[in-house]
Amino acid sequence: MIRRNATKRNTLSSPGRRAAWYGLLTALALCAGYLEVLVPLPVSVPGIKLGLGNAVVLFALERMGARPALFIMLAKVFCSMLLFSTPQMLAFSLGGGLLSWAIMAAAVRLDLFSEVGVSVLGGVAHNAGQLLVVAALLSPQVALVNAPVLAIAGVACGLAIGLILRGVLAALPKAGFRE
What we know:
Elements: H1 15-38, H2 52-63, H3 66-84, H4 87-110, H5 115-137, H6 140-171
Helix pairs in contact: 1-2, 1-3, 2-3, 2-4, 2-6, 3-4, 4-5, 5-6
């Protein structure tokens, strides 16, 4: 309905080419995540980040499909934990990343939202996934106290990432992903 065509299935049919793109996008997501570690947002609520690494996952979702985006998201989460974080943070990142990926993949498949709308859904879902992990592992009260701020942050950051992604998608031709 909005803007997609159904030709993603033939994307990157060569295994070598596919591996190269997976590696490139995973490295790009890690670099974006490292930038976020270097320049944190000036907020007091833990867990609020712009989500630059998630922009790469959304790019993969839009151009390559759900399965490659899942792989890149999982690689980003595990490698980020090894490089920039602690094993305890893995649960929070994984909870947010999986819920965000699932919601964004469903939104792209249903084709009801633009890339900006999908990004906003992903931002809110990522924070909701993290709050579910907080409620399960730490305290439901802590999750409830932080929920309103994280919901607003999810919308704002999702909007920013979606607008950035819109520019990137417009600048990069789809033909670059075809054989």
